[in-house]
Structures are given as C-alpha cells and as structure tokens.
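Q: What does the assembled structure look like for these inputs?
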Amino acid sequence: MTPRRPPRRGAEGELGGVAFGYAVRTLRGPWFSGRVPARGVAVTAVLALLAAASALVAISLGNYLIPVEQVAAILVGGGEEFERMIVLDWRLPVALAAVVFGALLGVGGAIFQSLTRNPLGSPDIIGFDAGSYTGVVITMLVVGTTGYWPVAAASLAGGLATAFVVYVLAYRRGVQGFRLIIVGIAVSAALGSVNAYLITRAEINDAMTVGFWGAGSLTRVSWTSMLPSLVVAALIVVAALLLSRDLRRLELGDDVAVTQGGRPNRARLALMVTGVATVALVTAAAGPIGFVALVAPQLARRVTRSAGAGLCGAAAMGAALLSGAHLLSLLIDRFYRPVPVGLITVCLGGLYLIRLLVRETRRQYGPPR
Amino acid sequence: MATSVEGRTRPAAPGRESGRDPESGRAPDGGRTGRFSGGPARRRAVGLAVTLLALVVSVVLSVAVGANPLPVEAVWRGLWHRDGSEASLIVWSQRVPRTVVGLLVGAALGVAGALIQALTRNPLADPGILGVNAGAGFAVTLGVGVFGLSDITGYVWFAFLGAAAATVLVHLIGSAAGGLVPAVTLVLAGVALGAVLNGFSTFLTLIDPDTFRSIRNWGLGSIARTGVDDALSVAPFLMAGLAIALALAGSFNSIALGDDHAASLGVNVARTRVLGIVAITLLAGGATALTGGIAFVGLMVPHVVRWIVGPDQRWILAGSALAAPVLVLTADALGRVLGRPGEIEVGILTAVIGAPVLIALVRRRKASGL
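A:
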C-alpha cells in the first residue's frame, strides 16, 4: 500500500501485527483505510519541514537581506511594496523551484531505481539527464527557441529517445542492471560531449554563463517558466501516485505482478515515461542537476529504515536535498561567488556515490587485503 | 541491495579473470580463433604492417587536411619551403605541431589504457573513464587558478600529482577485495570520481573567469592549442612512461594469471604495480597537461590490438603505442573536416566513437582476454 497521508486521522490506530522492525499503524476511516508505516510518515513530514525551512531562509538571503520573519509576513500577505516585489516576484519562484524540482528528481530516481532494481540505475547515471539536456540545448541554441513549451517538449523527447536507445542497446535476453548502467554511462559520455560542443560553439561570450549553462542552475527560473512547470509537476506527481501500486508489484517480479492483476509491460512503460518526465521537466527549466535522483531515494530508504523507499519519502528527501543545496549555493555566493546549484549536487552526490560503492564492495567482498 | 553492484560478476576462482563476464564466465581464450587465419606470428606481422601503414596515412592526413581547404600541392610546397606563404604558415604553425602532439598524446593514452586494463584486470578500464584524466585536470586547474601558473613546465607537475592521486584511488577501490571487484563497480567509482573532480574544477574556474576563458574548451580535449615547445617539454616524461610500461610488459603477463600465480613465477607484484601506477601517471598526466584529457582512446585501442596480437602484454603495449596515434590523428582530421569552418575537438569525436565501442564490449558474451 502507498503510505499516502490519510485525509483524516482514522478512528482507530493500532500497531500492526506483522512487524518489519518498525511500527506500522493501521488506520481505518470512512474514506481511507490502510497500514501506514509510522516512521516513514514522520520522516517524510520532518523532511518536508526541512525543505520548507531552507526555502524560507533561501528567500531571505541575497544582495538585499530580508529577515526571515519579514519573509514569512510577506508570504502571508503583509510587507512593503519593494520587499514584496523582491520576495514574491524574484526569490519565491527560485526557492519554490528548488523544492519542487528536488521532489520531482526524488520521484524519478525512486521510479528508476525500483524498475532497474538497482540503486545505481538512476536517470542521472544512465544518461537520461544528458539526453534531455541535448534536447534543450538543440532547441535553444540550434533552433533558437526559448519558449517554455517547445523547450520542455524537446527535453521530454530527448529524455525518452535516450531512454529508448539505452534500453534497446542494453537489451539482450532481458535487461541486466549491470549492462544497463554501463550502456547508460557510455551514452551519457557521448551526449555529454555533444552538449559541451554545442554550448561552446554558441554565441555566449561570458564564460560564467557557459559554466552556469552546463552545470544546472536555478537562477534563470522565473514565474513564466515556473507556473507551467508547477502544472506539469502536479500532473506527474498524480501519475506517479497512481502508478505506485504497479511499481510495488513490479518489484516482486513480473510473474507475481501478473498474479496480482497487474500488467507488467504496460505498467513499466507508463512508469518509465513518468520517470523520464520528471527529469525532463527539471532539465528544461534548470539544466542537468546531477545526483539528486541517485541519492534521494537511497538516503530516504536509510532514514526511514524501510525496504522500499516509497515515492513520498524519496520526494521529501529530494526536496530537502535540493532546497538545502540551493541554500548552500546562496551562502557560497554571499562569501565567495555565485555557484550553480548543479555543481554542488554533483560534488556532494558524487562523493556519496563513491562512499556507497566502497561500502557495498566491502560488504560483498570483505575488507581490503 | 545485496546484489546491487552486480554481485554475479564475481569470478569463480582466482586466475579466471574473464569471470567478470556476467553471462558466460568462460575461459578467456574461448573464441579467439577465426577471422585471421595463420599462426600468431603471421597475424602479428600483418597487423604490424597494417598499423605502420595506417600511421603514415594518418600523419599525411593530419598535415594535408584542415579547416582551411588548402590544395595538396600547396601543402606539399609549404612543407618544404618555409617561404612565408599562407600554406607554409598554416602547415608549420598549425598542422605540424598538432600532428606531433597527436602522435605523442595518442601513444601515451593508448599505452596508459592498456596498462590500466592490465593493472586492474578490467576490460572496461580507461584513464578517461576511471577519472585519472579528471584528476590531472583538476590539479592543473588548481595550479592555474590558485597558484597562478601559466606555463606547462609548471603545471605539468600538478597534472602528475593529480593523475597519481586518482590512479592510486581507483586502484585502491579496484583492489578492495584482492582484485575481485566487478568491472562495473570500478567503472562507476571512476565515473563518480570524474564527476566530482570536474565539478570542483568548474568551481575553481569561477574564481577567475578571465584566465579560464582562454582554456574554456580545455576540458573537451584538443590537440590544436598546444605548441611544439610545450609538447617537447612534456615528451621526456611521456617517453619515460612508455619505457617503464614496455619494461613491465613481461611482468604483466604473469600478473594476468593472478597475484599469487605471478608471485610464484618470481614476479615482484608490489613493485610491478607501483611502477605501473607511475607509468600511468606519467602517461595520462602528461597527455592531460597537453590536451585536457581525451577519453576512450585508452579503452578502444588496446582491445583492437589485443584482438589482433593475442593476450601477450608486450605486443599489446607496443601495438597500442603505434595504433593509438592513428585513432587520435584520424579523429582530429575528421573533426577539422566535419566542423568546417571551425573544427570539432578530438576529445568530442573520440567520445562519440568510443561510446559505441564500450557498449559493444558490455554486450559481448565473451569477455576480452585479459
């Protein structure tokens, strides 16, 4: 069952009979009943709060400092005209983007890690990121359109095409996680080169802009791109929640999924499109933001101590991570220089990936000789 | 999570290195027959002749073809008469230097790739994929950005330092379980390392965008921006790396059987490994200092060479030194034609050519004989 937040607290809450080492509450209400992992819900709520808190602090930071309580007052409708403009028109869309995009990346990562049954099968490793970005770069630099919808469509098309190519190339009597990842890395490397080539050939004279372009940055986000992003994001989240039951079934294997009334191939296709859409949406608005999709479901799984991370946990973790990275980039900007948020996620996420690999290797093969 | 990093690729027994092949797990020598008939000696002789011919052709192409479509006669005249004509200027200031750099860097990267494949016993290894080039690049960025170095004789040492650190790190990860680490884990560790180091490099370039504007395309890997003087000042290091590599080749044949077998055959395994790392450092670090790092050359070339000459490391290393410059020079010439009126960096073309090779390697049922 999806650990969906109940619409209303059930009449009865009891500890679940089957224990997996953590408390499960069974909720029964007029519209909803089900087993809710208590720790999962609590962790998700805390992470969501963290994301919101860092977004609030992020709004207050900038060349013109606005105290946090002032920000809160403006958000509920008070404040002066000038500060209202700064907060609502300029900083709110960026801070909101950090939260929403982080959540989307978490969902996308959770979907693909579950589909490939491999923590490393996340869209940023297997090249869907790079493919989406190729679509964006070609649309913006070669075709010359910067409108939101063409760019978003190109991003989705690029991501889907890459996913198709990677799966076809990795297919050989079934898709094996190991082959999928290496094929993804290869495709990612080739596309990354093409992207770099296109960007360096573009008429962008400012090296800083180039750096920001390639690394994934939220600073270009404004309401004109954020409003449609929010609409699409809502659609994606609804789709992901509807499909989450299929995702759980697929984790058990195709045969079990069929016996439970699922249609594995159709469900897999729908899940893949949804997963690619999350990455494509983020890439269209902010460029490739690496390693959030990889790290968020893994961290969420560890914090909630549950076997499957769950889409909600991954989403909350992703939101908290990207919002925190955004805050960090603003702090670095204050003391040093503007740094694209994608650079921060790549550096920190890459270090986490190395740690993950070393630990897994040790666990499987023992300590180094 | 237990089988997350492809636990199935664990070899059944030490010495069966092709056990990394996930499906077949067959002995490494299965299926090397075919295609080339005749004994190994004849195959090697034919391969050597073809490689030398290809090398000459690629050098000619590299001098004759360019973004500026000069007629061949003009190039020929400009080559022999340095009379200040346009052709002679272009040939001597642009095409000859980059041909020399391409020869040097190609040989260095090819041998570095063969070495790192032998050292990690990993058919998917390459100094670019495993983050060695990124380590050198990061260190150079550090030298240029923080310590204000602008001369290659200064920052080449940084490149060596960075390459050495990355090689040791990758080697540590790869030998975490006595060399039984699956190929995919090592590749992923290298990719992660490369991503992090490139991220920090970009971070450093933000310190002083103006300095880095000149080397903005540096990370793409090009042999066009390096002068002959720079190439010649790095050449001794590359030559030293090549010499060490060739001297070690015999020991690598024994190490391919596993460390224990190698030790029982009288090979000093630890010394061979340390010297191997030194050679990779000199070759990959020097090549990165000159070009910014060209990926996939070190992956592709040793595989093609191994396919022709068989599993003898002495032949693989020597063959890679001859064959890799062919790839670099041809890709460079191709980039000049495809990118007209500008040109496409050789590093971009090798990535686009190399990615399918990597895919073909993982799709293959039999692992390459290492």
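Residues 81-115 of chain A form the longest helix (35 residues).
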